[in-house]
Amino acid sequence: xxxxxxxxxxxxxxxxxxxxxxxxxxxxxxxxxxxxxxxxxxxxxxxxxxxxxxxxxxxxxxxxxxxxxxxxxxxxxxxxxxxxxxxxxxxxxxxxxxxxxxxxxxxxxxxxxxxxxxxxxxxxxxxxxxxxxxxxxxxxxxxxxxxxxxxxxxxxxxxxxxxxxxxxxxxxxxxxxxxxxxxxxxxxxxxxxxxxxxxxxxxxxxxxxxxxxxxxxxxxxxxxxxxxxxxxxxxxxxxxxxxxxxxxxxxxxxxxxxxxxxxxxxxxxxxxxxxxxxxxxxxxxxxxx
Length: 289
What we know:
This protein is mainly α. Helices cover 70% and strands 0% of the residues.
């Protein structure tokens, strides 16, 4: 498997040398790695995954990356191609969701849909680990990053299946979960489950989703800045092409969110966990073969 990161990658935050972003190290000319090399079938499968990503993201307030990256990596093992697209979509639909939620909350409840106080306290803990994770993303080879994604998702899937998600019970554990979740989100955008366990314990149910979306927008903005700094292709053309798919998922997810406000999503998470377990096992076996 060709890697888009060289064996001796550039130190983080250096000059924009794009020579490490090649799709084929044996090609005669260096080309920036994009989705242009995908077959029509692969592109259609990727579009389906982005429908799924938008559905989960707007429905739960998290999971757009953790529940889509494993599927994307089974189609095309280049996470650094898809992370910018996921980031662009999250910024767009995250801001849209918070704006809509804020207007509705002000009209109905007379207060913001975002818990700004707890958000500020959490960001003070998370910013440094987030930056450390972003640097790891820029320097890690594809196979290591893919293995990290599948291993973390494997652990999360067991918690979903057995209805035993990671839980924090005191301030010390809260700090550990926030810091670790921020670092993981810096490496692969899948640190949400650890972060959510803390926020769910301190933020009101009515404010949880929009508070998380504001957090994701801030954290993803940091990642996007790192992408731009190292000269990574943001895949804006493909982000635009896949926007209708993500938009359809977003619309369906809003209906799911409304339903989940009235019911416990235990069965839903067990189904998600089972799918993640299978996908993670397949992905890890492919990397080891």
